[in-house]
Amino acid sequence: MIRHRFLIISLLSLSLIAQELSWTRVLSAEFFYTFAFLVLSLAMLGLGIGGLLVRLCSSLDRPERLWVYLSLTAVASMAGPPAVFALGLKFSALFAGWEMIGKLVIAIVLLSSSFLFGGIALAILFKHNHQDMPRLYMADLLGAGGGVVVALFMMNQIGTPQAVFLLVIPTLTAALLAARGAWRITAVLLATGAIALSVRGDQVLELSRPEPAPVIYKHWDATAKIKVYGFSEDYRGLNIDNIANSPVYRFDGVWDRPDSLRYEFGIDVSWLIGQFDSCTFLSLGAGGGSDVLQALQAGATEIHAVEVIPHVNRMMLEDDLSGYFQPATGNDAADSDSATNDNPAPTSAMSLAEFSGYIYRDPRVVVATEDARAYVRRYPGKFDVIYSLSSNTWAALASGSFALAENYLFTTEAFRDYWYALSDSGFLTMEHQFYMPRMVSEVVDALAAAGVDSPRDHFAVYNLPAMRRNLLLLSKRPLTDSIRYYAFGALTPDRHEALHLLYPAADSLSENLINRVVRDGWRAHALDADIDLSPATDNRPYIAQMGLWRNFDSAALDKVLPYEFFGFPLSTLIIVVILATVIVLVIPLNLLPYALSARKLRAAPWLYFFAIGAAFMAIEIVLIQKYTLFVGPSVYSIAVILLSLLLGSGIGSRFADRVPDALPFLGIAAWLFLDVLLFEWISSALAGTPMSLRMSVTAGMVLPLGFLMGMPFPKGTLRVKDLIDWGFAVNGAASVVGSTVILLVAFNYGFTVSLLLAGSVYLVAFGLFSLKRAW
Predict the structure, then answer these.
(1) For the range 522-527, what are the long-range contacts, defined as Cβ-Cβ under 8 Å and sequence gap of 24 or more?
(2) Beta carbons of 332 and 396 less than 8 angstroms apart
């Protein structure tokens, strides 16, 4: 028996899942989330390969060396991310030539090495204590659940780059417990190194890139990497994850200004606000507050600023954010301590709240840190104007390497929610650069579902060529020519290059794609369009996955854009690369023991461990993305969903040897069926409740399912005994297969079909488990 085995497993699992979450956040912000998905999904294969090495190489199967494997796990965890950043990887040229492909392979090897050594340690612990697997697997899952909480807490409290290095300390603590005598000093020295590296986390985990202006402020937590640019004395830029931008205007807080001193906005909604004697205005994704400033300037009497990133709202409200400001550069490099009344402090020394004139403290402004959909659903009143300017959720939050970002702001059901949230004469204005051909179909479907006569009479779409944007105007009452003409400034011929209608379009523009989609329906043009035109729904919310496989062209690989706005099927390509790697390399490796090992898993248990690995991960992926709609895309939703699933699975594992064999498999299938039937009803019925209640209901829906899902693995282990190192390896490879295949299913058929498919795989696993003689 290995001493402290339960605690060692818990600490190792805590570190491994915590590093997966923190690495996802780092790679998502610096390389784009599609890169994070590709690299980390492949790196996670190391966990199963570690178990396979224990089966194939008897020299590795040495419990007394457990502390060595744990120490190597920590070293690889500390060295991997900085080494990847030093490689010079360029996502846009990822498939352009062998040099960059080689660097990609090196990056995967670097990141997978920590999982490989961790997999060796886990396989040894499982193999030599297989008779106690219900408790061992419980320790594994409970440790992983703790890792979710610890990772999110540390990323939020000390910063994501710092957390990347400090999250190896639980593994080093496990190494300390496993080592004996003077070898324990190794773990202490490595922990000291982790702390030293964390101090330089911001430097070693950031790509060098040209910045459009001096960076005067930085903050990086579990939700976003935030930079503030000092463009000028009167203008700042708020940047999220190196891709999304929001302007911040300097304002002195004085509203009694002549017209000549009023701000001009690229999309002017003052006419719409002016149609109401007392306008209630909602900003979906308020960002740096330019929407709020416009609404206040236009005379709105109540403004709701809704933003999902907590730190952005703190920046707009609070002055005391010490510890985050960077040394000012360039024109902003003046010393703020030398400022006097005659020589005021430079704007680089101002907080964002002061710079923007404390507009978020205005009594007319209600600040909400919440998902926009959740806020719209729970707000009891009505809005006269709902405004969305470049709102996006492209980046993975903290949901782990296997999640591709879904977006619930632009679905058919979202537009139905917005419709019900508008006052009787209300307006919705929503701008986006690329999604409009899909959004117009969603609007038509949403209004039809709401029982609106002639849905096409209630919206218009504008083109803003200078801004390279499309703009949707949705009206609760049928639109008149006058409203279309004046909504965003007069549609005069001399403004055609700045603003004109795409729907309803003039004869000369009637063949534009948006007008044709509205006129003929998206199906009529699905085959001749370069992008996917099918409406996104809450069951299939992947509006950014616009690529079509028929557009795949190997010549286009010379420069890969991180998004699919022009129809290139990037997400599908990445999933195909992952699946090809598993099928061509990893699955054959998992068959090697049949030729090289004296004792062999029979076919039924091999397929059994593969089935439960694929199904477990498939369900986890869908639950994370599905329940994010209900709770809201934040660190809270990720924490409650993952923690509930892992906690439930851990408890279930403890009782695996005490329940009938059929119970977990049939129970999982039945629970998933109930989830499919009841989720939409529960989501709609409780959408307006506080987040704490929604989180509690989510835990109540996920935890029992997790309880059942924690049983199949230990049940299989109790049969195969010390062959579990091989079963663990097969399970690890299948997890990557399940996570990727289920995304392809979700892209095309939605979450309902995905969950039913995963439930069916568990039933197949039960069939294999029932063949007792085949084991």
Answers:
(1) 522/437, 522/438, 522/441
(2) no
Instruction: Please report where in the chains the tokens 């976003």 appear, as a residue.
Output: 224
Inform me whether the pLDDT recorded for 715 exceeds 60: yes
| Residues 420 and 428: beta-carbon distance below 8 Å | no
DSSP, collapsed to helix, strand or coil, labels residue 369 as: strand
Under 8 Å CB-to-CB from 290, ≥6 apart: which residues? Answer: 246, 247, 248, 249, 265, 389
Classify 245 as helix, strand or coil.
strand
Asked if 76 and 144 touch (Cβ cutoff 8 Å), the reply is no
Task: Please check the confidence at residue 600 and state whether its pLDDT lies above 70.
Answer: yes
Q: Would the pLDDT of 83 be above 70?
A: yes
Q: What is the mean pLDDT of the chain?
A: 90
Q: Is the pLDDT of residue 340 over 50?
A: no
pLDDT, tens digit, 9 for 90 and up, residues 749-762: 999 999 999 999 99
pLDDT in tens, 614-623: 999 999 989 9
The residues facing 245 across adjacent strands are 239
Q: Where are the beta strands (DSSP E) in 182-234?
A: 215-220, 225-232
Residues β-bridged to residue 303:
281, 365
Q: What is the arrangement of strands in the sheet containing 215-220, beginning at the earlier edge strand?
A: 215-220, 225-232, 235-240, 244-249
Neighbours of 549 (CB within 10 A): 10
pLDDT in tens, 184-229: 999 999 999 999 999 999 999 999 889 999 999 999 998 889 999 9
Categorize the per-residue pLDDT at 176 as very low, low, confident or very high, splitting at 50, 70 and 90: very high
329 DSSP assignment: -
CB 397 within 8 A of CB 404: no
Question: Counting beta carbons within 10 angstroms of the beta carbon of residue 500, is it exposed (0 to 12), middle (13 to 18) or buried (19 or more)?
Answer: middle
CB-CB contact of 425 with 250 (8 Å) = no
Q: Is 240 helix (H, G, I), strand (E, B) or coil?
A: strand
Contact at 8 Å (CB) between 129 and 1?
A: yes
- Assess whether pLDDT exceeds 70 at residue 347: no
pTM: 0.91
**Structural contact between residues 705 and 671, judged by C-beta atoms closer than 8 angstroms:** yes
Which residue bears the tokens 């009452």?
477
282, 288, 293, 295 alpha-carbon torsion, rounded to 10°: -20
Rg over alpha carbons for the chain, rounded to the nearest Å, is 27
Q: What is the pLDDT of residues 528-579, one digit of tens each?
A: 999 999 999 999 998 888 999 999 988 888 888 877 888 999 889 989 999 9
According to DSSP, residue 512 is labeled S
300, 293 Cβ separation under 8 angstroms: no
- 10 Å CB burial of residue 206 (0-12, 13-18, 19+) is middle
Q: Do residues 738 and 614 make contact, with C-beta atoms less than 8 angstroms apart?
A: yes
Instruction: Extract the tokens encoding 62.
Output: 């040495």
| Rounded Cα distance, 712 and 588, in Å | 24
**Helix, strand, coil percent content, the chain, rounded in steps of 5:** 60, 10, 30
Q: Please identify which residue in the block is written with the tokens 């949901």.
A: 399
CA angle 97, 394, 359 (to 5 degrees): 135
Q: Which of 240-244, 418-422, 607-611 has the lowest mean pLDDT?
A: 240-244
pLDDT of residue 228: 94
Q: Decide if 364 contacts 296 (C-beta within 8 A).
A: yes
The interaxial angle of helices 635-654 and 133-158, nearest 10 deg, is 160
Q: Are 369 and 313 in contact (CB under 8 A)?
A: yes
Report the Cα–Cα distance between both ends of the chain, in Å, rounded.
26
